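Standup notes, structure subgroup. Blocker cleared on the ribose-5-phosphate input:
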Amino acid sequence: MHVIGGTASTALAERISRELGNAPFAIPFTKRFPDGEMYVRVGGRLEGEDVVIVQSTRTDQDLVELLLLEEAVREAGAKRVFVVVPYFGYARQDRRFFPGEPVSARAFCRHVELDADAVITVDLHSPQTLSHFSKPAYEASGIPAIARLLRERPVDLLVSPDRGGIERVRRMAQILDKPWFAFEKKRLDSEHVELSLPADLDLPIQGKHAVIVDDVISTGGTIVEAAKLLKKQQVGAISAACTHGLFLRDAFERIKAVADEVFSTDTLGNPAEKASVAPDIAQILVRASGT
Ligand code: R5P
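Run returned:
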């Protein structure tokens, strides 16, 4: 199995290749034409080989690079192509909220799978997105990676910032054998949310070390509000953990001002990257390829 690391996911791709027993790893050559179009070239002998392409699609350019890499490895004669998209961009528009809108997640599932034999991603905004793929598609979870890290910390309780994250926090709580609860969240606009404690909360939280667990930290609005509310309840320490750390604009600094520790997995490169999903992705690759 050969592993190719796209520009957006070079470090994670290398970690995956190590997890696959030091599978041959390559970084493609990329450049821009004068008109701004992208050029890619993959090296190595890929004819008849299973090839893994790793590329998060945080930006539209990342997506274009991924499509070109898929075409390039097919042209190079790859036997099977496994496309790993650790952070699947556009996944949050997973339905039509208003008439005239696209289901963006579905549009990109269709395009990403075109030259793939299988697609692997991590913590999609909604797991139903997997059903938009017509080829085998797998979703790794960031939870085991974060749990591996939390085992080394004195954690007392886990908190989901909204009810949509209940399954996530419940799974984490089960692994770590800790209590959990979920805030009630109302989104006011794309940057502001209103949170409240659940009416039936019967956990002692004063003086405890609480870890807020989310799938994505984007503007940081959700985590900042959750941390402020926990502080009001006089919790002892607050950590914020997520799978995908986008940390737009000054999100990281704003969260650091209200939380004692912030960390994410390595699906996107960022200053909070402390847990790796490489072992979890490698495990799925082994299963999917039957090797
Ligand atoms: C929402 O459903 C997600 O799980 C996250 O809570 C949300 O995307 C975080 O966004 P932000 O950091 O902008 O509040």
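Discussed briefly. Residues 2-141+276-289 form a domain with the Rossmann fold fold (CATH 3.40.50.2020).
Next: hand off to the docking folks.
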